[in-house]
What we know:
The structure is a single chain. The chain is mainly alpha-helical. It folds into 3 domains: 31-299, no CATH class; 304-371, no CATH class; 376-409. The chain is 75% helix and 0% strand. It is built from 16 helices and no strands. The protein is flat, with a radius of gyration of 29 Å. It starts with a helix and ends in a 22-residue tail after the last helix.
Amino acid sequence: MNPAASTQASQSQQKPSEGDTHLHGRRLVLARTVWAILLVLTLGVFAACLPIYFSLLHTTCTGAACTVNQLTPPVAQTLQHLDISLSLYAAVNLALMLIWACTWFVVAAIIAWRKSNDWMALLLAFWLVIQGTANATLIVGHSQSSWQWPAFFLNTLAFLFLNLVFFLFPDGRFVPRWTRWAMLALAAGSVLAFLFPGLAFLSEIGAPIIIIAQIYRYRRVSTPVQRQQTKWVVYGLTVTVVCDLIVLLPAFLLPLFLPSLGSTQFATSYGIFFTTSITFFTFLIPISFGVAILRNRLWDIDIIINRTLVYGTLTAILALVYAGLILALQYLLRGIIKQNNDVAIVVSTLAIAALFQPLRQRIQRTIDRRFYRSKYNAAKTVAAFSATLRKEVDLEQLREQLLAVVQETMQPAHVSLWLRPPAPHETHWVPF
Length: 432
């Protein structure tokens, strides 16, 4: 078969899935123009909200309608005991919010620059811009300022585009088809939430529907490249949520074991730490979308997921074993050795060092068997064939084993083996 013809055929098979979202001619000009206008309006509202955002954080709230992150007088007094003034608190929050927003803006700009002829990429980039403004518009939208309604509208639009992006990602189609009606229902709920703030929950009920739709799309419709795109986004969301839960967990567990930490001072200081942490963890979300949509150099996410599962599980197990050993040894050595704390730490550290490599290998094998069964079986088959290859001398048996290994590991439609006959002048050395 002609290689050029096969290459052309493979490219023609890929064009429909990618060309569905490509724009040309007047549609491309119109899409870019609308995108630019919406971008200017969004950034204009965001810029107008920044002074109001800083002013709200710089003052304490004495009424019942306090906005998010706005301090009450008791919390403000606690911050003063920690040598943190209202001005410093407002400045740090403003700086974190700007860093957070700029990260989303930069990823959106890269996507729009590299994929400006793709309407799905433009839609995703616009959502990233709106989401980057969400922290400021959320606070200003619940205030009594002059920019309350534009900010509230922009924040509601962020939820609407969030649902739309996840319904369409990654190929720009509603899969299954009934999800378009679900999207219309969620859009109506967002409009009602905008008109009647008491119905705000209506704009946030799309998560279960989106999860079901994405699972169906991944298993039934997505191509291998689209599955890799989905894995990148799911990986970024999962790591963000897990990291947030890990940081949030001590706020509930530490006061149970150490009641002295249940004070307002601990809650306030840990709240600042938690807010700072989740700001940086959420950077993974726009980055994962950026890598997924710029798929011309899509990295193999399976390797990253595999390493995350292995070393995340390993870290959790070793941390539990380390803490358990310290507590158990301190209890057993109590009254025998005076410096039982130091001895327990040294023994526990040595035990963790001894457990690290065997435990890592065992976790790796378990995860490979559970989540990467095909690759695990293929690796075992190739390893067994390599061991047999050292002892096999019969060419016919070697040929049959090689064909069987290729068929089992790669599962091609057809397998054939061609051996070049030796030339008359070639000399073959048979090793002993």
